[in-house]
Amino acid sequence: MTNGDVAVTGLGLVTPAGVGVAATWEGLLAGRCRAARDPLLAGLPVDFSCASDFDAATALGRRLAARLDRFSAMALTAAREAVADAGLDTTSWDPPRVAVVIGASTACMEHYDREFAWMAAGRPDRVSPMAIMRSIPNMAAGEVGLDLGARGPNLGVSTACASGATAVGVARDLVRAGSCDIALAGGSESLRARSTAVGFHQMRALSARGHDPEGAPRPFDADRDGFVLGEGAGVLVLERPAHARARGVRPRALLRGYGASCDAHHTVAPHPEGRGAADALRAALADAGLTPGDVDHVNAHGTATRINDLAEYRALAQVFPTPPPVTAPKSVLGHSAGGSGGIEAACAVLTLQHQLIPPTANLDNPDPGIPLDIVRKSPRRARLTTVISNSFGFGGQNAVLAFSTA
Amino acid sequence: MSSSAYEILTEALVTRIGIDPERLAPERTFAELALDSMALVELAVALDGHAEAGLPLEGLSTLTLAEAAELLSASTAGR
Asked: Distance between CA A352 and CA A86 in Å, rounded?
């Protein structure tokens, strides 16, 4: 442990594998993709997604469910679980010392779709007065702060598909800097929206495997053809190790390093050699005081687009003489964009705790151009001291987190 | 009190604002249901054509649901 390490004392998850940490971990270990035909997307060129069975009214009650957009409702549900998991009592914590940082990119376009259909119909008078407020990407953090009475630094961060990981990194810096004692950090997003589906389809980023939704996300497979729309939230509780000790709480893991970078190469395409991703990997290791040989496992960004997976492999091959075993949770959960970084950070922590690497689904025909040791078919038991979680966003924005056993 | 206007009003309260149906009663005021100013605007918009003429936002929170339903049915009848 070094002085800059931050303790992870709580986790909360809402994913297509279920509501809660236990359901998600079980789903990841089962290694079966959750994609299915989605009534919300009926009639579109891509009409399937990885949907969560999350019901906001069940989780939060009717009143909050009516007020909150889906991504805020998922974030709040995950935050409440994380706070309980950390053994925190919101009635006795010091509210101005509790920060909330939640990442989101599109947040949830479905709400905009619905409200602005009134504009197209020539009825702007029917647009909800909450149409904007409900959906702006910082609102997940705002609603979590409001619900839990957390009055410290409160912000949303947006780095597209890396947002959740960037949020964890930014929150870690707030804890390190002494700007707060406790930080709730992660990401939340629902990509299940008609405009989102069409937009990503038009840029050829989505899998078109409509005849076989469960087999659609195929990270690192030779037959991969794009990602699958997903939704979910992942929230971590961060605090200084001494703060956790004083509360008598044993951390789930330590967040040791955070590295961020920009490809500065192209609006949406990753640098073909994975330059920016490699920079972020090196930065995270340097920040943690680790060498490549210390890393036992990589929780990959692994979207299953042709170019992401190849660029990610090249980045790993640059940094690691022999890359450690890899897994790609988006093969099971789909891609929740801003939510994924938070979900996968939690997944990395669970992997460390259980000393068990969940498998990558649908990897039937490994791409010969990507000679990585990818865990597939079933979970792999391993001695794990340090794992990293990769997240890369459109805009060339990259975030890598390094976690070690507590 | 117009029963259809009351039904339209209470349905909007349940579906748009998320009020528990068991808390709805004609003699309840919007204030008792804890509708803030933003929720009142949302309700007014949800009630569409009824809203502009029928539900003045000023003083709305002190009205009972029965009184609001009366205003709604009067505005509908006047169109």
From this structure: 17
pLDDT at position B52 over 50: no
CB-CB under 8 Å, B42 with A130:
yes
ipTM over 0.90: no
Chain A residues in contact with B38 by the CB 8 A cut-off are 129-130, 133
- Domain residue spans in chain B? 3-77
Secondary-structure class of domain B3-77 per CATH = mainly alpha
Distance from the A54 Cα atom to the nearest Cα atom in chain B, whole angstroms? 17
Residue type, A16: P
Q: List pLDDT tens digits, range A360-392.
A: 999 999 999 999 999 999 999 999 999 999 999
Least confident of A63-77, A173-187, A225-239, B48-62: B48-62
**Mutation test of the interface with chain B: which of A62, A115, A125, A143, choosing the one with the most B Cβ atoms within 10 A?**
A62
**Residue predicted with more confidence, A253 or B56:** A253
With contacts defined as CB-CB under 8 Å, which chain B residues touch A61?
18
- How many other C-beta atoms are found inside a 10 Å radius of the C-beta of residue A57? 13
Give the catalytic positions of A in this structure: 161, 301, 335
Residue of B nearest to A57 (CA): B18
Q: Which residues of B touch A65 (CB under 8 A)?
A: 18
SS3 sequence, A7-55?
EEEEEEEEECCEECHHHHHHHHHHCCCCCEECHHHCCCCCCEECCCCCC
Q: Residues A231, A16: contact at Cβ < 8 Å?
A: yes
Q: Is a pLDDT exceeding 70 seen at residue B21?
A: yes
Is the CB of residue A127 less than 8 Å away from at least one CB of chain B?
yes
CB contact under 8 A, B18 and A126: no
Q: How confident is the model at residue B50 (pLDDT cuts 50, 70, 90)?
A: low
Question: What pLDDT sits at residue A69?
Answer: 96
Question: Would you call B18 and A61 a contact, using CB atoms and an 8 Å cutoff?
Answer: yes
pLDDT in tens, A78-124: 999 999 999 999 999 999 999 999 999 999 899 999 998 999 999 99
Residues 6+ apart with CB under 8 A from A376: A31, A359, A360, A361, A363, A366
Residue numbers in A near B45 (CB within 8 A): 125-129
Q: DSSP per residue over A330-348, as a string?
A: HHHH-B-GGGHHHHHHHHH
Is residue B66 within 8 Å of residue B6, measured between CB atoms? yes
Distance CA A199, CA A182 (A): 38
A window 5-64, beta carbon within 8 A of B: 57, 61-64
Q: How far apart are CA A168 and CA A401, in angstroms?
A: 8
